[in-house]
Amino acid sequence: MAVEDISRAVLAFNLAGVTELVQKEIDAGTDIDTILNEALIGAMDEVGKRFSDGELYVPEMLMAAQTMKAGLALLKPHLTGDSARAKGTVVIGTVKGDLHDIGKNLVAMMLEGAGFNVVDLGVDVAAETFVQAAGDNGAGVVALSALLTTTMPAMEGTIKALQEAGLTVKIMVGGAPVTSGFADRIGAQGFSADAPGAVELARKLMAAQGGSS
Ligand code: B12
Questions:
Q1: Position in ligand 1 atom list of the atom nearest CA 62
Q2: CA 30-35-174 angle, 5° bins
Q3: Going along 69-186, which residue ranges are E strands?
Q4: Looking at the domain 2-80, which fold is it?
Q5: Distance between CA atoms of 31 and 68, rounded to whole angstroms?
Q6: Which atom of ligand 1 sits closest to the CA of residue 59?
Q7: In angstroms, how far is the first alpha carbon of the chain from the final one?
Q8: Which CATH number is 89-208's, of 3.40.50.280, 3.30.390.80, 3.40.50.970, 3.40.1180.10?
Q9: Which pLDDT tens digit goes with each residue over 106-159?
Q10: What is the Cα–Cα distance from 40 to 18, expressed in whole angstroms?
Q11: What is the pLDDT of residues 162-205, one digit of tens each?
């Protein structure tokens, strides 16, 4: 099946192959969520497993990520669509010390698609940078991503910095090692395990902020 061919191509770091296969599936009208979740995200889960098992090393993980991103770029227009009116501003970034951005980019894309104005600060973002950007952009929601257990504490530090700055933003957190229990403990207002859930959450938090949703 073609979706499995895409996963196999990601695992073979075959960028041209992924590009061709993903485009073919889009043209054939295959469900975009199926391509995203089963083919691309599924392949990255397998990459993570192989890394844990010592079958893959960092350079290979990076090649898989770049290959996956090429597929993601083709899906982007289908994930975002038109946003007729802004629904409030979300400042998003991967916390200090962490360079993982695929999941964060996906969340940013889906938020844009849902009509939010998204300010993406990138990766390895210092707490002060989040504070500055949230203030400058009048953000209703700040979204923090972390993929490493070692960078999860930076989420707590960022939340503290936002509170100390007196900003009334709502904070949501996510990333593979993050749980709702952790989110509660560090004082975040919300957690979601995936990008569609992040959109729902942003709507709720923005409404609680008094923004339109
Ligand atoms: C690709 C990858 C890399 C790439 C990253 C490339 C890039 N541009 O992002 C590279 C090669 C750079 C990398 C490096 C490292 N990595 Co790495 N990496 C991965 C891998 C295989 C996939 C991550 C990914 O993109 N998943 C796909 C996306 C779509 O999923 P996601 O990020 O979880 O995002 C979803 C949700 O979590 C959620 N979400 C994400 N963010 C947010 C934010 C909000 C607000 C919300 C609501 C939701 C949300 O929505 C997303 C969409 O559904 C994972 C394994 C895994 N399966 O997670 C390891 C993994 C995260 N890496 C790991 C490690 C150890 C490292 C390194 C330390 C390796 C090393 N020795 O150097 C370095 C650290 C570098 C650094 N300082 O950050 C470990 C972490 C272990 C741990 N307990 O902390 C993992 C789990 C692999 C493993 N099994 O051991 N890595």
A1: 11
A2: 140
A3: 89-94, 117-120, 141-145, 170-174
A4: 1.10.1240
A5: 17
A6: 11
A7: 39
A8: 3.40.50.280
A9: 899 888 867 789 999 999 999 999 999 999 999 999 999 999 999 999 999 999
A10: 9
A11: 999 999 999 999 999 999 999 999 999 999 998 878 989 999 99
Q: What is the pLDDT of residue 18?
A: 97
Residue with tokens 């469900």: 31
Dist. CA 153 → ligand 1 center (Å): 16
Residue that is written with structure tokens 């995203």 in the block: 36
Domains 2-80 and 89-208 share a fold: no
Spell out the domain ranges in the chain.
Answer: 2-80, 89-208
| Whole-structure pTM value | 0.87
Give me the chain's average pLDDT, please.
Answer: 91
Q: Coil, strand or helix: which one is 37? A: helix
Q: For residue 201, which atom of ligand 1 is closest to its CA?
A: 47
Indicate the pairing of strand 170-174 with strand 190-191: parallel
User: Atom 4, ligand 1: which residue's CA is nearest?
Assistant: 62
> How far is ligand 1, taken at its centre, from the CA of residue 100, in Å?
5
CB 169 within 8 A of CB 162: yes
97 with 151: CB under 8 angstroms? yes
Ligand 1 and 205: CB distance under 6 A: no
